[in-house]
Design brief:
Blueprint lengths: L17 E5 L2 H4 L12 H5 L18 H15 L3 E5 L2 H4 L9 H16 L3 E7 L5 H5 L6 H18 L5 E6 L1 H10 L10 H24 L6 E6 L3 E3 L4 H24 L4 H7 L10 H5 L6 E4 L4 E4 L2 E4 L17 H13 L5 E5 L8 E2 L2 E2 L2 H19 L4 E7 L18 E4 L4 E4 L1 H11 L9 H4 L3
Parallel strand pairs: 1-2, 1-13, 2-3, 3-4, 4-5, 5-7, 6-8, 7-10, 10-13
Antiparallel strand pairs: 8-9, 11-12, 14-15
Helix pairs in contact: 3-5, 7-9, 8-9, 13-14, 14-15
The protein binds beta-D-fucopyranose (FCB).
Length: 457
């Protein structure tokens, strides 16, 4: 049973609030070896036995590289203002260094122009995890040289696309790259070292700050920011042990990133906890990291409940779970946004990802995903509540436009508001997509040019 509010529910959101849908390159493009694309660490990771739940890979994914025009038409039919996508670094600069791949750059140029022609704002992310394999061979994000390669990559993309995109994000979720990729080893590149993870996190942050400086120095006009995955971190009980552990976990997840970005320092409690695993830094690094941003993105899915007995998780709080085993906790989004606004001098915030994996059933060309609609509607309401409490919000993007390659979960988990039949590549709008479109269509001042196409939904 859905509690989804009627489409008018967003009537109180400001007219300039940006509504969107999000994807990332590796998860949808496929064409892994096409037109000169180089290998990424995710191409390599998928080959490791047992790394991906269904032993799948990104070789074909949603075949978006070949179907992008139809997919842009689909986005247009939803009536969104913006499309958040990422550029595959190894597609545009295969080895991460050296020659650029014109065919790869052309692909993104055509796509950006295709979005603009449809009146949709392109929101570009530079690094949604698919690091060129050649850079990993030299240490990946643990190697300080990768910072400089990233800055060059950012400059190259800006030269080609910067004047046409509506915003540029440097990194998507540095915590995930560092902790899941370099400490737990359950994501690419599959390394298990806490020292490596912390060094990687520092280099990711440093490359973000230096890229902002370099882009502005070459005249980039696009608003610039970063995207973090954040959650409220809550103690399982009132015991002193659990509360102390909760403070530390909050430090590792949130303050480790927000403090250097906005205060110019790493949290001392986390540095003390890390001991010899704390990252090596150079003079000036922390100043670079706190380079002011024009906006900031937060990806929100669930909360973390912490006890001193073991690692935090998202399943034990007693709330209903999504198909990822993540608790559904929309209030947490309000709490998080208000906390960011209260504790840090943040620029306007965007929810750059939010959505849910659920067990969908495609029957007679329909997917009645009331659980997903309910999830999205309740989180949108939570954003509205944060705005009522004074948080400056710029927009909200659903994760995801399409069912896609959900990293280590492969194709088993479906986050799309559009269903993908991977055998035929047929796209089917789920009920949640129609609900989202109806809601956007009910706005005053919505994109008028696509009103005609919207009636075909
Ligand atoms: C986020 C990722 C995104 C997707 C969602 C479910 O951590 O940024 O690519 O996998 O989770």
């Amino acid at each position: 049973m859905t509690h989804a509010p009627a489409p008018q529910a967003i009537a109180s959101f400001p007219d300039q609030f940006v509504w969107g849908v999000a994807t990332s390159a590796f998860q949808i493009e496929g064409a892994a070896d096409t037109d000169g694309k180089g290998r990424s660490i995710w191409d390599d990771f998928c080959k490791q036995p047992g790394a991906i739940a269904d032993a799948s890979d990104g070789l074909r994914a949603c075949d978006h590289y070949h179907r992008w025009q139809d997919d842009l038409d689909l986005i247009d039919r939803l009536g969104v203002d913006a499309y958040r996508f990422s550029v595959s670094w190894p597609r545009v600069r295969p080895g991460g260094d050296g020659a650029w791949n014109e065919k790869g750059l052309d692909f993104y140029e055509r796509m950006v122009d295709g979005l603009l022609a449809r009146g949709i704002k392109p929101y570009l992310t530079l690094n949604h995890w698919d690091l060129p394999s050649e850079l990993q061979a030299k240490g990946g994000w643990t190697d300080r040289d990768t910072v400089h390669r990233f800055v060059e990559y950012a400059q190259g993309i800006d030269r080609r696309l910067g004047s046409r995109v509506a915003s540029i994000v440097t990194h998507n979720e540095p915590w995930v790259i560092a902790v899941l990729g370099y400490e737990q080893g359950i994501f690419a590149p599959g390394i298990k070292s806490r020292a490596a993870a912390m060094q990687a996190s520092h280099h990711l942050l440093l490359s973000h700050g230096l890229a902002l400086q370099a882009l502005r120095a070459q005249g980039c006009k696009a608003p610039l920011g970063i995207v973090l995955n954040l959650s409220p971190v809550q103690s399982a009980t009132d015991s002193e042990e659990d509360k102390a552990q909760t403070r530390l976990e909050d430090g590792k997840l949130l303050r480790w990133y927000m403090d250097p970005l906005f205060k110019g320092s790493y949290p001392v409690d986390v540095i003390a906890y890390l001991g010899a695993d704390a990252p090596r830094m150079q003079a000036g690094d922390l100043d670079a990291i706190r380079t002011p941003m024009d906006f900031m993105g937060v990806n929100y899915y669930s909360r973390a409940v912490v006890s001193a007995k073991g690692p935090w998780d998202t399943t034990q709080g007693g709330l209903p779970l999504t198909d990822m085993g993540w608790e559904i906790y929309p209030e947490g989004l309000t709490e998080l946004l208000v906390r960011m606004h209260t504790d840090y001098p943040v620029p306007p915030l965007y929810v750059t990802e939010n959505g849910g994996a659920f067990k969908d059933v495609l029957q007679d060309g329909q997917v009645h995903d009331a659980d997903r609609t309910d999830y999205i509607a309740r989180h949108i309401a939570a954003v509205g509540e944060a705005m009522r409490q004074g948080v400056r919000m710029g927009g909200y993007m659903v994760w995801s436009l399409l069912d896609n390659f959900e990293w280590a979960s492969g194709y088993e988990k479906r986050f799309g508001i559009v269903h993908v039949d991977y055998a035929t590549q047929k796209r089917t709008l789920k009920d949640s997509a129609m609900w989202y479109a109806a809601m956007l269509n009910a706005r005053s001042g919505h994109r008028s040019h696509s009103a005609a196409t919207r009636t075909t939904l």
